[in-house]
Here is the input.
Amino acid sequence: MGVVNVTPDSFSDGGAWFTPEAAVAHGRELVAQGADLLDVGGESTRPGAERPSPAEELRRVLPVVEALSALAPVSVDTMRAEVAAAALDAGASLVNDVSGGLADPEMAALVAERSVPFVAMHWRGHSSDMQSRAQYTDVVADVVRELTERVEALTAAGVRPEAVVLDPGFGFAKHGEHNWELLRRLDEVVALGHRVLVGTSRKTFLGAVGRTADTARPPLERDVVTAATTVHVARHGVWCVRVHDVVATVDALDVVAALHGFGSAR
Ligand code: HH2
Here is the structure.
């Protein structure tokens, strides 16, 4: 899944693809590089981010979803049912909600009615103050329990269990070591029996790998370390990785394919 952020303020590539033309050209390039799915989002979820209005979010994503869905399957990265509905009408085929349906009480009913796959990420609150919620007894057990509660609520609202894709939410209400523990014990999330999506790409905890706090890697220099996590998670059988650098990801997945005696990931 290649990331198409139509935002001025994303932590990793804010502003780079903010016009519809630039975002569509970027999506086209990611497909040419081997992305199977494009994730179009109009709201940055970086820690401390302010939310755009619904009208502004719609203005950002709809033309891009419409143009890119003619080229490849598109997911819409949104916490708003209104935006998800309009994006599905414009050609999107999957909803990626970092709140797992918690932010908008209308989301579950929409996904049930449209019968589309739904990525439910582990989430504990909006980005403005999410890092204060990074309190866990056992981060993996707590995330697994909270994701299970999400699946129960979604299926009670009529979402088919097989439509639910689970995501442990790297970097969302998680400190560095929480993310590493989730990577180490990812099989406990996979064991829930749903498809799993992982989004480690360029996240802060990877900036610190092999560095001190003063010399952390900037986001644009985190693609090699991201690809190393892709090898790890692919070996745990995740269904999808959400990444900024598709070229490095396809190479990493080809390593996994070679290890397992499969053909290319391309
Ligand atoms: N991470 C981000 C955004 N959407 N969706 C899922 N399912 N999983 C993730 O881990 C995830 C996500 C944050 O990354 P990015 O889009 O690069 O930054 P920003 O939120 O600042 O736009």
Remarks:
- The pocket of 6-hydroxymethylpterin-diphosphate is lined by residues 3, 5, 7, 10-12, 41, 44-46, 77, 96, 98, 119, 121, 167, 169-170, 197, 199, 242 (CB under 6 Å).
